[in-house]
UniProtKB/TrEMBL annotation:
The organism's place on the tree of life at top rank: Bacteria
Pfam families documented for this protein: TPR_19 (PF14559)
Annotated InterPro entries: Ester_Hydrolysis_Enzymes (IPR051532), SGNH_hydro_sf (IPR036514), TPR-like_helical_dom_sf (IPR011990), TPR_rpt (IPR019734)
Protein name: Tetratricopeptide repeat protein
Keywords for the protein's UniProt record, in alphabetical order: TPR repeat
Amino acid sequence: MANAFMGSHNIKSRSRLFLILTLLSPVIFFVLLELILRAVGFGHTYPLFVDAKGMPGYLQASDQVIKRYFNDPKQAPNVSIDTIYFKKEKPAATFRVVVQGGSSAAGFPYGRWGGLAGMLNDRLEASFPDKDIEVITTAMSAVNSYTMLDLVDEIIAIQPDAVLIYAGHNEYIGVMGAGSALTSAQSHGAKLLFLKLKDLRIYQLMQRVMGLFSPAPPAAQGGAARSTLMAKAAANREIPYQSEIFDQGQQQFASNLQLILSKYQQANIPVMLGTLASNEGDQKPFVSDPTKESTTAWQQKWQVYEQAMADGQYPNALAAASQLAQQFDTANSWFAVGQALLASGENEAARNALLAAKDRDQLRFRAPEEMNTIIKNVAEQFSAPLVDVQQYFVMHSKDGIIGNSLMLEHLHPNKRGYFLLAESYFNTMKKTALLQDWSQAQPSAKAWREVPITEVDAILADYKIATLKADFPFTATPYKVSFPTPNDTVTQLALARQSGQQGWIANMQSLLGYYRQQQDHPQALIVARMLAQAFPSQHGPQFASGMLFLGLKEYPRAIKYLHKALALEPRNSEARKALIYALANTGASQQANAELEILQQQLGNDPVIKSLERTIQAAKQ
């Protein structure tokens, strides 16, 4: 009986084991297949941060990140995150900030220093010369809340002390946007699933096989008339106000933003959310409603409006425009109402009409006002500081309407606009006391004089914007833009960079040399400081910045850069001499004497020792 029982038990155990193995066999198969595909080098993974080349101990954002969102990496647009080097092992005393967002956060068309990260880093560095501050950008053109959500875990891994978000314009047309041609999945759930699966080699293999039987996506098609990223992303997709796709864009933004803040909240990382600003007054709607506006009734009323505006009969123009808006409710009709109200001096009502026009613009390159409502609600939900960028721009705009005085085109700020964008975050950081002791906060007027945008950057930015406006959606007939005639040294240097004759480093060094030759120390300092920030592990730019600050008698900031220079080259006697002089002039005689002792050990009885001793003694008095 016992043997029979044991035999029956063994049979049941083997049956259960067989059943378990049968159920697990697909899992085992896929795990093995995944491992084999990885072992043979099939597929790809594009990490957010990679080791910086030639800079041991530093990381930088990968220039391949955008490819992770495309089944065929060759279809990815040519956009990348600006390079910022930062320490792989974050020092305990370092205050690290990470910026997330799209092209406006990234600083297009000025680049890194013209954007939120560059401007804010400069302002914080000037305000806290005794602190080690890193402002790292992960912002990139064409990205939206899906890509931002995908980067969160990797951002958390580098231990930021704060995350700043300025995003929302790309929810419809950006990569994986609700109405974008730069996406394959359509539903919110499918896109989130894609983010989870995209790094699996099995998934990539399936996509590769499916791609063999599918036509090229719209992003890979199109000729010269659709050469810009904006054209490829839009692909003639018109999204009416309050349509199904319009609502999908809002829903995905709200859901993804909540997921993003939830992750950061769990990691105990403070987040600041910024409202969105765009060109309200001077950017006509790209696409209104051609169907409604082709009718005879529309055309007749429109002619009445245009004639009244031309004759300066603004009440009549307003009456005609208001009838258009009430009857047709199109972007152009509301823009006309706004223009008539503005001409009549009714600025507040004009702004409301112009915002209504923007919201009804069916080519959704500008975020509708619903996105700002979402940002405010999510900030309140998570008790995150709200940075009201839009209101800050309104405060600094003529008639309280954001237009060409702060915007280059539809939504990218100009030099002054980017300064205000960074200042709005700077002021919010100050209010929330994210950093202690703001007693040395750099005044706005001084910060504006030191904006880290060179004359070369400004020329190149103007050329980029002119080129942008020479194509869709700003014109139906694309045309070629000529580069400015290089009649002066700065324009010649801009052309050298634009044409590829000089890389960024060589170009900046040439510009620095030019400013030194002209004895334009403030401009030279801007360039030197940018080089020092770009290459934190190189002695030369740190020393040059320190010496220029010393020449301008900005001793605390000189000390910061000279300390950095000596940390990289401890036996550099010229840097130590300058540091001693700067320390003496700030009243730090004890530190100056300590550095003098080190210098004496290096130089012996060099006459400069006596001279520096006298400087220290004189500073005491």
